[in-house]
Amino acid sequence: MSDHVDVLIIGAGLSGIGAAAHLAKDLPGTTYAVLERRGASGGTWDLFRYPGVRSDSDMHTLGYRFRPWRGDVALADGASILAYLRDTAREFGVDEHVRHGHHVTSADWDSTTSRWTVRAEVDGETRTITADFLWACSGYYDYDEGHTPHFEGQERYGGQVVHPQHWPDDLDYARKRVVVIGSGATAVTLVPAMVAGGAGHVTMLQRSPTYILPVPGNDAFKRRLTSVAGERTAYAVTRWKNVAVQSALYQLSRRRPALVRSLVRKANVALLPPGYAVDTHFNPTYDPWDQRMCLVPDGDLFHALERGRAEVVTDRIRTFTETGLELESGTHLDADIVVTATGLNLRIFGGATLSVDGEVVDPAGTMAYRAMMLSGVPNFAFTIGYTNASWTLKADLVAEYVVRVLSRMRSTGTRSVVPVRDPSVEEVPLMDFDAGYVQRVVHTLPRQGTRAPWTLKQNYLHDALALRRAKLDDGVLRWS
């Protein structure tokens, strides 16, 4: 394994495997390596092991554009997604280029040599690798610690407290009373899964409701079309169908929020017991898609509530007690196990420090070019997916664009490419999203601009046309 490569990819998860596969199939002859901090590939889908872990996007858009997701399962379990990723890595030879146990700590660009020098910690030692192009595909989650707010009195609680990001393999919750704190995608997945797994009773404790939309667990359209047209054609058509549906729902949510709120409420009422307090537990204070909407396959959460094995409580925690949680309303929830599904922390570029000619780059002081490169940082790209649609839709577009950039550099002998910021372009936040995990760190992220090519539309249909047709000589990228 050489100490120098043409392209160095950070992260062997969904984005990194996809990026490497694009290099393998579209730029043969490119030397590359994938540095993965953990001892196994798969990223998020290898890290999270809590009961019921699954996708919160349909698999026909979460799957890669170039490799069909087989079958008609819409929201797949974590093990199936992990197998899909690793099969993709094997098929394109990516697994042979992954270096496990490499924690990237810093990367410095040297203009005199037009190279990156990347340092990684490996078994307590520092290793150095050089590359012509650096591609950060580590997502934006902090893999070390999830977000857990301070809870009064937690130290006196006699039961177990577990964060989903660090789920113990030997956790026995059979016949136990479980309280899941949170109302996001993780919580709505955990509750029915733990009920099905034998928990005595599961309470989802939320400060405020989330939009929860029941969807079919299997895509009947994909199943029927596969029998007629075959897997690959059915996948492509289903993918575009689902993109159109997702986009339409998002646009309708932004333009007619009251209508979408009403439609979601009706879907909830239809699956809940008569007289259920829908407006207490399933009526968010914010508009649809101000935060990510939770999808539940075949309404599994609602069925768990209907059978009485689970409940939703909307209240705030006053304090932990020796035996559970005391709420601000005065109610006490007895609990043998408390699961803090309270969110994730963000950390871009895997926490690595970037510098250009010895000067440290402050991401918040840069502007993101097409939401994939940083102003003033040469030969660098990063992959961050959509917040309102499947991550891979954006990841595939980024990979296609980066391949175009690399191909142009190879054919012209260009050593360096860098987006040059226009001072007249005004700044706005990179991620205009009200979710807590974004708002906690939005001030540390790169900015976006108010006009192209510095804007992020959060719209795959727009981006697919704009990025594939975009001219590389756009007056913003400087080639040298």
TrEMBL record:
Alphabetized UniProt keyword annotations: FAD, Flavoprotein, Monooxygenase, Oxidoreductase
Short name of any one Pfam family annotated for the protein: FMO-like
InterPro entries per the UniProt record, alphabetical: FAD-binding_MO, FAD/NAD-bd_sf, Flavin_mOase-like
Coiled coil is among the record's keywords: no
Cofactor(s) in the UniProt record: FAD
Source domain of life: Bacteria
PANTHER family, A to Z: MONOOXYGENASE, PUTATIVE (AFU_ORTHOLOGUE AFUA_8G02570)-RELATED
Protein family: Belongs to the FAD-binding monooxygenase family.
Protein name (record): NAD(P)/FAD-dependent oxidoreductase
Organism in which the protein naturally occurs: Nocardioides furvisabuli
